[in-house]
Amino acid sequence: xxxxxxxxxxxxxxxxxxxxxxxxxxxxxxxxxxxxxxxxxxxxxxxxxxxxxxxxxxxxxxxxxxxxxxxxxxxxxxxxxxxxxxxxxxxxxxxxxxxxxxxxxxxxxxxxxxxxxxxxxxxxxxxxxxxxxxxxxxxxxxxxxxxxxxxxxxx
Length: 155
Description:
The chain has helices spanning 23-26, 37-51, 79-94, 98-124, 128-152; strands spanning 63-64, 67-68. By secondary structure, it is mainly α. The chain has a two-stranded antiparallel sheet.
């Protein structure tokens, strides 16, 4: 199943799922009890990249000095940053040891500190557009931090 059935060919809008397709065809797997988990994981990540909400815009209510801060995502968000967040999320998904999770947690902590320092400077300079951008990035980093905490909780 290609990207073509997920998006409208004219406007590239995400389409509702095809109700006639089953999970095996969606995930490009053989109809069998024995599923190639490596192939399944690869397909899942491929689809996740295609339909990830970070690439779709939704405007929201929160305002800061008359500037809208998006609740979910922002089409003006730095695409490189979004890819970084997706890569961190993938590493977290693949992390099997506490050491691997601690490494990811350290990376996120450094990025959060950089954002806090940048936000402070932006507010001090009354650069509210820059502050908006940084606060949006911080929200993504907080989301990753929450995922790390949840993954560390033993079942």
